[in-house]
Amino acid sequence: MEMLTKDLPSADTARISETLWLLGQPSLGRYIDFVRDQTIGGSQLKRSDLVDEWRQANDYYYELEQNEAGIADSIASLPLAPELDPIVDEISADSRFQHTFDALPVKFEMVELDKLIVSQLHVDVGHGDRLKSRLGPNAPADELLRFCQPLDRPEAPFTVRKTGKNRYSFSSDSSDFRFHEAALLGPDRLEGTSLVRPNSGILGLMVGYSSNFLSLIQSDNRYVLHNGHHRAYTLRALGYTHAPCIVQTVTRLDELGLVASRDVVESPHHYFTSARPPLLKDFFDPKIRKSHFLPLIRRVVELSFEVKEYEVAG
Q1: Which of 7, 37, 134, 224 meets the CB 3.0–4.6 Å disulfide criterion with 117?
Q2: C-alpha span between 151 and 170 (Å, rounded)
Q3: What is the distance of C-alpha 149 from the center of its chain?
């Protein structure tokens, strides 16, 4: 199910990314749309061929359900070594951590990688290669923890354009680029700027990147990888068997809605109770994974605002 770069049409390879996709998992329609709409040459592929390769992988998953039933429940996890406590305290005190993990009980654990349940069925190989350059195969425990839970990671460059009277677009090559929130700021935030008009307040529309902590959601004996799929994939590719993770524990479906992705919230049985859910190790199984090539896409966040001025009776 692999594809080689020599099979690609002539193109600027610097603007091409390779993606590994897990076949055989829900949904078939989503996979067909992805291949035909986004991959290079995908629009020329027959739908029947895509269905056949997906069905073959789905049959293989059925075999895994028989041979590896309950494997996700046997995942190993241990507390972090005490000498890492100062770094854990530093991470826990960071405002990004406190903002992200403010709803449910949180702990730090060294968790087995192979048996992590994945809800994201694709990874960008190029991004994984870039992450490999930041960490060797035998990094000491403190470097490994900072790689998984970065506080000072380099951020991808972005551009800003004014595209209308009250409209701006922000763009970046990073798929992690996103709108955060709107916030009302005080006039003191303008101190030191060249703006001289009297201001009563500022409405800030905030765009940027996620905190990007490697985090899991635990329910009973299972751990679902919530954030950090590329770092988990990279660690596994480098030969690591365990990773220091932030773990949030859920005990009810209502709690799951506070912290999990939409796919997990909509299909909790698939991840938490099925005999053999998709696991991180599946990205390294040629019977399941399929390599696709995509033109490099820039992620755009467009913001617009409307101003109305009127009077009302006091």
Answers
A1: 224
A2: 23
A3: 14
pLDDT digits (tens, 9 = 90+) for 293-314: 999 888 899 999 888 999 998 7
The strand ranges marked E within 187-232 are 202-208, 215-219, 222-227
pLDDT recorded at residue 140: 96
pTM of the model: 0.84
- B/e letters for 272-305, b = 16+ CB within 10 Å, e = fewer, are beeebbbbbbbbeeeebbbbbbbeeeeeebebee
**Distance between CA atoms of 156 and 176, rounded to whole angstroms?**
9
Which residues are within 8 A (CB) of 192 and not within 5 positions of it... i.e. 6 or more apart? Answer: none
Tokens (6 digits) for 250: 């859920």
How many angstroms separate the CA atoms of 124 and 229, rounded? 10
Provide the greatest CA pair distance for the chain: 73
Q: Are 231 and 214 in contact (CB under 8 A)?
A: yes
